[in-house]
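sorry to bug you again but im stuck and you know this stuff better than me. what follows is a protein written twice so to speak, once as letters and once as structure tokens for the fold. mainly i need to know what kind of three dimensional shape the backbone takes. anything you notice is useful, everything is just below:
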Amino acid sequence: MLLAVDPKQIDTDDQGRLRISWKDGQTTHYTPRQLRLACPCAQCVEEWTGAKLLDPDTVPENILLLETELVGRYALNFKWSDFHSTGIFSFDMLRRMAGLEP
């Protein structure tokens, strides 16, 4: 069964943005800073309330996405130039960030 949240290809474009081509034909782009600000890890989001803990002013405008790794068959993990690397971004979350329903 083809699911909208299944990526076909994951890479970066010539502007350093994460590019995901989905199996349903959609292609989405995410800037490194956009992704870093959306990090769902416990250091960036309060686990019980969902309140944002990450101060956007502490994330450089020119932050770099250094590495992208698959987490199982459902998510991505990123390593950033600010040494952060604990967030797990599900494919569902990435689709919702792009305004596409999974």
